[in-house]
Amino acid sequence: MTYDRLVCANCAAPVSEGRCPVCRANRERMQQESFFAGLNPVTLVALLAMLVAAVALLAHQTA
Which pTM was predicted? Predict the structure, then answer.
């Protein structure tokens, strides 16, 4: 999930605007999360499928 769609429970403003300390802290935390947290599920499934295909290809070539 991205913070641009979240609404702060503290000030009722979009978190992306960073109006209060709670917004700013959550915005900072979400920006520091891992790379895979920002990807949508379809992209993650596609990356996993490519990884499985690459492993299968390597296993077939060494056999």
Answer: 0.46
Rounded to an integer, what distance in angstroms lies between the CA atom of residue 53 and that of residue 45? 12
Sign of the torsion formed by the C-alpha atoms of 9, 10, 13 and 17: negative
Q: Is 34 helix (H, G, I), strand (E, B) or coil?
A: coil
User: pLDDT grade, residue 50 (50/70/90)?
Assistant: very high
Structural domain total, the chain: 2
Residues 6+ away with beta carbon under 8 Å from 7: 13, 14, 15
Say yes or no: 24 and 45 in one domain. no
Helices vs. strands in the chain: H and E counts, helices first = 2, 0
Residue span of the structural domain in which 54 resides: 35-63
Report d(CA 48, CA 27) in Å as an integer: 28
Q: What is the mean pLDDT of the chain?
A: 84
